[in-house]
Amino acid sequence: MSTIINDEEGVEFQRENWEMIRSHVSPIISNLTMDNLLDSYKQLFQVNIVVGGNIVCQNVVNFILKKQNKGQIPALAALITLLNSDVPEIGETLIKELMLTFVKQFNHRDYISCDNILQCLSILFLYDVAHEIIILQILLLLLEKNYLQFVISVLKTCGWKLALVSRKTHNMIWEKLRYILQTQDLSKTVRESLEELFEIRQTDYKNGSQGLLVLDSGDYTVNTHSYIVNDEDRANIKLGDFKECTRFDELTKVFDALRQKIWINNESNEDTTEHLQINDMTSTNDVEFKKKIYLVLKSSLSGDEAAHKLLRLKVANNLKKTVVDIIIKSSLQESTFSKFYSILSERVITFHRSWQIAYNETFEKNYTEDIEDFETEQLRILGKLWGHLISYEFLPMKCLTIIKLTEEDSCPQGRIFIKFLFQELVNELGLNELQTRLASIKLEGMFPLEGDADHIRYSINFFTAIGLGVLTEKMRSQLTIVQEIEDAQEEEERLKREEELQELRKKARESQPSQGPKIHESRLFLQGDARGDARSRPPPSSAGRKRARSRTPPRGPRNNRDRSRTPPARRQRQRSRTPPRR
């Protein structure tokens, strides 16, 4: 087809080619699903979409505006991302048209179309096709007009990405929503949706942006587009109409080269897939991979350079945790904490969410499995690195939930690590900001407010010992309450045991026969030995008792006993015959 186009000239031929492109593109877009995404992408390159880029854009906009296509918008956004990688002009035109169409439909109160457009733009922002300026313009407009349902929808989809790239503006929007929730009289539906959104944010948007196709940025070339809406701009309703192209031959050559490149890449990917199916990751390959990562780190002069080199390697998701582990262990080889590794970690975490997941898993492994293997100086470096990443919110504060601060559940190395970690948090944030962040998340493992009084007391003593007793104020006030509850429970158990003992004694007395010797109560549960020890025998009854003869030998005759109480006469002292001394 391209050869014919190069050989022919004239407006009429371009018009015929335009109609052919339109008839080819329209059914591909209309029948797009997540299952046939890659096939649809390849089919689009059977016609010259470089020349007919506006036709693709017009079909995409029409597809989005249809109510019944809402479920296919994630697939459409993924297709736009792939096309934008090869033909950035399509992505740029689409971002502009979607923004202007949103303003138009919003003014016409076509809220179904607005919802579809917002969903598409939010996903394109996640795929780095749309700049954050696009999302911020929309959010500020919606907040100004008080259309909270749209704001909630956008933040659910791409709030986590907005927090990464524009933390200050993200927090400002949330403060506005908090103010609205506390001061305005909202409908029940909106209030419940807002409360649900705040719960999602507390989990770091864990439940947001579900059901999306995961496109690793290594799978496509990132071309990000921005557009600021002007009052004079209007959506181009004739975007798909034929227009003579003065650069027809030039664009045709560009398309031919692009299509050839795509075909070569497809063949290469197929060969790689076949190769990977028979290639196993042996221990030798694993060592070589780790060595390669280590050499990248040691050959870099700055954290930014190291991050750039690592990201160019396009590491697979299943190997990112290995890379992070190498980064952490390399930092521990330094004599002191180096900002090289903190800057490197910042760059890779903000590049893609999969890196943040890898860092979270490595933090858990460091504390739960490896902590006893580290020396004191290594624990200091480790605490500073993780404390830095948590304080600047590259890692969420909730990663600390794995720590349980008790004597049984922590080891000396773990407590030293916690000490250095919190000292770094205080240095970076200050005590007031740290207290605010700790109050926003439930860390029962380190700051228990209920349950075992010993756990609360141990935590109070630990943070007081490391000079952070101010963090234990709530626990101190709660400890008294918990202690009173435990004392009351112990007293209740003691009384219950006494009642059970009294009941047993009562039953034992009632079980004795009515006649016969009575058993003394204090000796009720004693058992006599085989010899018949007198201590175990019950006392004989007084009725019919005969006096037993004493076996003690009798004393002398009574008549001979002197009953006088007069003391015997004192024996007079004989005078000494020794002459007195002179």
Automatic annotation (TrEMBL):
GO terms for biological process: mRNA splicing, via spliceosome. The keyword Nucleus applies. One of its GO terms (cellular component) is catalytic step 2 spliceosome. GO terms for molecular function: RNA binding. It is found in: Nucleus. PROSITE patterns: MI (PS51366). InterPro entries: ARM-type_fold, CWC22_splicing_factor, Initiation_fac_eIF4g_MI, MIF4G-like_typ-3. SUPFAM superfamilies: ARM repeat (SSF48371). Keywords: mRNA processing, mRNA splicing, Nucleus. Its main location: nucleus. Pfam families: MA3. Residues 504-582 are annotated as: Disordered. The keyword Nucleus applies. Residues 288-405 form the MI domain. Residues 568-582 have a biased composition (Basic residues). Belongs to the CWC22 family. This is Pre-mRNA-splicing factor CWC22. The gene is SUVC07G4990.
